[in-house]
Amino acid sequence: MAKRQKDYFGLPWLISVILAIIPVTSWLLGAFTRFKEGKTLAGIIRLFLFGWNVLWIIDILMVAFTGSIFRLFDI
Length: 75
Prior knowledge:
This protein is mostly helical and about 80 residues long. It has helices at about 15-20, 25-35, 40-50, 55-65.
């Protein structure tokens, strides 16, 4: 199994956590990550529907503990 690339451009863990805590950067970088993975529909959903609420808190926890954003939809 190939090693998975960390989100937020492969930045160090502390920088990624700081970016995840800031709502605007978490929202934009989360959507950008999904677009970069080729998951257009998931990026659009993340950008317009689920970017600011509970998903933001889950993203903070996921980045802090796993280094990766939460992936609700794999489409």
